[in-house]
Amino acid sequence: MNSSAFGRDTAMILPKLNPVGIALASVAFFFVGFLWYGLLFTDAWMAAHGLTEEDAGSPAWMLLGLVLTVMQVLGLAIVMKWKGIANVGDAVKTAVFLWALFALPFNLYAFTYLTAHNVTLLAIDASHMLVGWVAAAVILALFK
User: Fold this and answer.
1) Which residues contact 95 (CB under 8 A, 6 or more apart)?
2) What's the CA angle centered on 96, arms 91 and 137, to 5 degrees?
3) pLDDT (tens digit per residue) in 32-85
4) pTM, whole model, 2 decimals?
5) What are the boundaries of each domain within the chain?
6) Which of 22, 23, 132, 137 has the fewest C-beta atoms lying within 10 Å of its C-beta?
């Protein structure tokens, strides 16, 4: 890969991203995480990890989660800009494709190398990423 071309392309794209779209997509993705881990699958996720309420970590870690969410949204926005995604349908297809190539394999690493091989945990974490990436992609398409 030509690193100078990559750098030039990225430098040209970043200023062209819609900051409102990035912010809204990040909030939506973060909200999906709240729904997944805070409401819908809290008990199943904690049980899959063998955690209790007392084991729950500091809410300060959520700040790192927000930073990671914004980083993912920026990456998705850059790819969508590179591909010239102009509509919601193409945005959803792109998000699902990228999820299958990047997010799902990262989730599968944990499944593969953790001794528990917990299918419930894999399903919760991978589906969170899928829904989050799709939600972010839709918002990015609407705020291109």
Assistant:
1) 76, 133, 134, 136, 137, 138
2) 35
3) 999 998 899 988 988 887 877 776 667 777 889 899 999 999 999 999 999 999
4) 0.85
5) 18-142
6) 23
Asked if 21 and 70 touch (Cβ cutoff 8 Å), the reply is no
Nearest to 81 by CA among 4, 5, 15: 15
Contact 119, 96 (CB under 8 A): no
CA distances 109 to 45, 51, 115, 126, Å, are 17, 21, 11, 11
Q: Give the 3-state secondary structure percentages of the chain, helix then strand then coil, rounded to 5.
A: 85, 0, 15
Q: Match 């729950």 to its residue by tokens.
A: 56
